[in-house]
Amino acid sequence: MKLNKILTVYKKELLDLLRDRRTVITSFVIPVILYPLIMIGFSSMMARQEMKLDQQEMVIYIQDNIEDIDSNMIRSGFEEIENFQVMQRMETFSDSSMIDLIEENSIQAMIVISDSLTIGGYRVFNADIYYNRSNEKSTLAFEKIRNELQDREITMIGDRLRSLNINEEILNAVEIKEENVAPPEKMVGFALGKFLPYLLIILTISGASVIASDLVAGEKERGTLETILVSAAGRNELVMGKYLTIITISIITVLLNLFSMYISFKHILSQAGQAVQNVQLPLGNFALILVLMLPLITFFSAILLSISTYSRNIKEAQSYQMPLIFGGMMLSMVSFLPGFELNLGFAFIPIVNFSLLIRDIMLSNFDMNLLLVVVGWTLILDVIVVLLSIKLFNSEKVLFRTSDDDSLKFWGKSKTNIFSSQFMMLFYIALLLGLYYIGGGWQSKEIMSGLVKTQLILILLPVLVVLRISKTDIKRTLRLNSTKPVNFMLAFLAIIPALIIVAVISQAINLIFPVSESYIEGMKNFLDAQQHGFWLSIFVIGILPGICEETLFRGFVINAFSKQGFWKAIIISGILFGVFHLDPFRLLPASLLGMWLGYMLLRTNSIYIPMFAHFVNNSFTVIVTSYGDKIPILKTMFGGDTIPYWYIVPSILIMGLIYGAFEKINNY
Amino acid sequence: MTELRESIMIIAENLTKVFQQKNGQDLFAVNDLSFTANKSEIVVLLGVNGAGKTTTMRMLSTVLQPTYGKASIEGFDLASEPQKVRANLGFLSGDTGLYGRLTARETITYFGKLYDMPDDLIVERINSLSDLLDMHQFLDKKIDFLSTGMKQKVSIARSIVHDPPVMIFDEPTSGLDILTAKNIVDFIHKCKADGKCVLFSTHIMREAERIADRIIMIHEGAVLADGSWQQFRDLTSLHDLDDIFIYFVNKAKEEEVVDEAE
After folding, report:
1. For an engineered disulfide with A35, which of A96, A264, A329, A571 has Cβ 3.0 to 4.6 Å away?
2. Which residues contact A468 (CB under 8 A, 6 or more apart)?
3. Are the CB atoms for B53 and B170 separated by under 8 Å?
């Protein structure tokens, strides 16, 4: 890789992009013009609208059920409010017709005045205010009425106290005085810290995405990629030159955006008559954040470059970018949520880590070690994704991807099509949606019957239907093969170490991402056989999943990935199995279990082994949760709330032995 | 003998390219293809669409990697020295587009720099190429605003800026009108006169007949026949190149049938 060639590519790409009107507009013109327009225009418009609203005539109906001196006072109070047109309610209007009038905004509010006596014998005026909260004008009328009534109440209390010869000052028992010790820049930091991360992350992604899609996918579309590939430029030099281009434009976009925002912000403050000098922006923190943006920008640029390289044309690149942009938006919003603090666990989740870190920095309250972890980890990811880009760029399959490559053949003539990975992913997603929308509904009605229906109708039935329609040899596909009895024994022996490993891992995850107490309680109740009866629990939690889920994942799904190789098939189907539980806390343990079951399937070539193991595993969980504290052996093993971490060592050793035995017995 | 070996610029030995098809079967786009091409020689790869011409040329230009077999250009092996192969090669095809937002001069300069040419040499080269191809009046216009013929000239200049000893043309005239196609044909003759080795692919028999020193007929990824037009005529006692081509296709089919029968 030669630096001067990278620079040649880089300079040419910049020149090319800067001549593209689209890039210039989205990356430079919009940020410079948009913020002043939005912020200044919007704020002045809002001020004007509010003023207009304030001056609008409002029609209020009053129904006075008392009609004495006091209620007259209240009524005349309303009449004195500016722009209020107070009308007497006609007897002929029904309540519902009045409410309709308010709803359609013909009148803004109705007040019904009545009175009652308290237990102590004092008279209370009741004012029922009908208004429409979804309408600004009506809401404003309500606020004015409420303020007027509150003022009236104070006057009336004063009158009452005076008539009893008590000084009004008696009401002032506690005087509250607010003293905010936060310096102004911290206040600004607090306010900005919430939305700045979101803003920065979105700006980065959207700034980089436009040019990234143009740089490789665009070249494919315009037919210039082959030209450049036959020239003397190395592939790595091309990738690096393009990568630097995306980074540069992103940095410029982010800086321009921030600058423009800062100016507009200042302008608004000065317009609002605020003393701008007093609002100190925490510039030191800003500078640190800008430096930190570098690893984030390089990370996004690398991902976007990979997407662009993989895509055949700009349109395809943009559709692959969508999930990234939406995902980025969602994850970056974490800074809005109270209670999320940057910790070692979150430091490893891309985007979330930066969102929380930027917020902490704005509050001048961050942990240097975590900052280094976030930056270091992001740089590692950076390198990985850049290497991926280079790998994609060197893959002729990717560079010369033809359009029929990914056309989905659903029910083709060839029977093997139902085992294409694309078909399987669609099938899987369909089942997942069914599980979520239909199964969730069934289970919330009645958990046990809901589970039975879910397993039979949503999991087992679709597989059987698909196999039947495609006329697949069911016995061969599902591997309904008999196997050596010793395999059953090994599968059985593996359950306890497997459960311990899973339990220790869950415990470790729990340390980093604490699971809520109510969740654990719910899980325990669900597994507790005493709630539903032992045999029913074993049937619903042990036997049914053993048959149905195994038929789906080990019988059907894993076949689609066996072309990718032995371990890849096991890992992919395992992860799909983990995701299927629709529960972030069980994702990792369930995935690991899925992989182990997948391994046993492929080694023994019999689905009965994973079915048996799944059944034993689930049933064992039921037994442990229900009778864990009653059976002595279980009590020593799983009793108490935590499992010692060192248990994992012998468990892994035992698993290793069992693995070896599987390999040997089945001749591998 | 040594002189002969020195004059050989392209050597392809058993070049084979296999694509994985959707149904899992292998497609032999190029099947065990061997040939050579010499200095000052115009060799035409002749074959119908899908015969494997483009795949062969893409392999020779290092864009695709051969599944089996090897090839060298100017003595540089495709697999081990791809950069040097590309530096000794000019490649032009209907698919090689240009950057529309750059001017002709910027485009040629960019490719010159990628070939590690010093700046003053690039300037000199642009001048001489502009004289040759008559490009002076649009040298500083953006390519988007040029006519097809002008673009074609820029493409030629782009492909030859580094003065490579070997030129590869992959159906460069397809979709061009006669006048623009003539640019290319003239240029090819110029290349030959300059002692370059030219490999040219086409499916148009007339074109092959007109410019080729030697014709390599390709069908279904394999060589049908290799020789001059005159040799083909003597061998088959046919006159029309179309007929000659069909003759060789049928002959290959018969051999296949015999092979299967055995």
Report:
1. A264
2. A474
3. yes
Provide the residue type at A3 as one letter.
L
Task: Pull the structure tokens for residue A2.
Answer: 């030669």
Q: Which of A15, A20, A230 sits opposite B63 (nearest CB)?
A: A230
Per-residue tokens: A560:
């689609």
Pick the closest to residue B170 from B226, B96, B103 (CA basis). Answer: B96
DSSP B204-257: -HHHHHHH-SEEEEEETTEEEEEE-HHHHHHHH----HHHHHHHHHHHHHHHHH
- Nearest residue to A74 via CA among A23, A25, A129: A129
Q: Which DSSP string do the residues of A119-160 spell out, in sequence order?
A: TTS-EEEEEEEEE-TTSHHHHHHHHHHHHHHHHHHHHHHHHH
pLDDT tens per residue across span A276-323: 555 566 677 888 888 888 999 999 999 999 999 998 888 888 888 888
pLDDT per position as a tens digit, A158-202: 888 888 888 888 888 888 888 888 777 677 777 777 878 888 888
Q: How confident is the model at residue B76 (pLDDT cuts 50, 70, 90)?
A: very high
ipTM entry: 0.88
The answer to whether the beta carbons of residues B63 and A395 sit under 8 Å apart is no
Report chain B residues whose CB lies below 8 A from the CB of A12: 99, 102, 106, 110
* Contact list, A420 vs chain B (CB under 8 Å): none
The residue type of B61 is: S
Q: What 3-state class would DSSP assign to A413? A: coil
CA A540 to chain centre: 31
Q: Which residues make Cβ contacts (< 8 Å) with residue A115, sequence separation at least 6?
A: A65, A66, A71, A123, A124, A125, A126
Residues 6+ apart with CB under 8 A from A179: none
A20 touches chain B (CB under 8 A): yes
Residues of chain A found within 8 Å of residue B24, distances taken between Cβ atoms? 416
Judge whether residue B190 has pLDDT over 50: yes
Q: Which of B24, B96, B115 lies closest to A227 in CB terms?
A: B96
The first and second tokens of residue B114, run together, are: 């990628």
Residue pointed to by tokens 């045999």: A535
Q: How many CB atoms lie within 10 A of CB A81?
A: 16
pTM equals: 0.69
- Per-residue model confidence as pLDDT tens digits over A489-510: 999 999 888 888 888 888 887 7
Joined tokens for residue A404: 């029929």
